Protein: Dihydrodipicolinate synthase family protein
Organism: Alcaligenes endophyticus
Amino acid sequence: MYSNNSLIDEKSRGVYVIAATPFKDDGELDLESVDRLTDFYLEKGVAGMTILGMMGEAPKLTLEETTAVMQRTFKRVNGAVPIVVGVSHASNRHVKSLASEAMDLGAAGVMLAPVANLKTNEQVYNYYATVAQLLGPDIPICLQDFPQVTGVHTSVSVINQLVDDFEQVVMLKHEDFPGMRKLSQIRQEASEQGRRRISILVGNGGLFLPQEMLRGADGAMTGFAYPEMLVQVCALFDAGKPDEAEDLFNIYLPLLRHEFQYGIGLALRKEILHRRGAISSAYVRRPGPLLDANDHEELGRLMNRLERSLA
């Protein structure tokens, strides 16, 4: 049993921000900005952090860099909030090694996406079942349902079967697109069939957060560069003020939608974090998107409009 007392579980809720991985202008890892960015997220009131996710450029890191990011983040957070570590990889052996290292450092659980291009329910179930058995019952698992990237559709029936069969499956990162009907179905079937209710945190940049909260989501697991909005919206929903939550959300929606663009979204997110002083450089490690002069001007206009609206 791992010693961390703040493991994720079925009751986890709030904003588990997907952390960017900062690099210097020359592409080298920037550990000082890891500290700054961690402080930034904590100051904005996040309930937890998720590091080494897809938007954290995890596949572009060496094994040594992966360890360095984990060690630096855990040291800076110092137990203030739970940290989930993304461990998705084509090799099950690598998944097990990284998950064990993360938990030894104090992780609250791991996030796992399926290997690419599994085609049938049986294949998807067998993949997750194999990894869950490999990791064992003491490592909490967040299933990442992100078919836009993985090419894998994880059906409601597969999710339900995994919840029934593996107690360590405690969380779903819900970012199927469109997927709100799936969210409703999971909640409805859990209620009707007496199934264990797991935590559901939503992704997709938070683009549909108000609707997803109304359908039974417990919060967000995404990396929008204004995490305080996500935190405030979730808090308003928890306080029974859905209209106020949506009014606040709508102020940020133009910029959120802009940041969510496929292709250049990560570059936009890191540029916003850079302009907000959270990281020293907006560098996206190659191969990755680059912003041109028009992109920079457009982003500045949207950020200025947001500031005026908030004022």
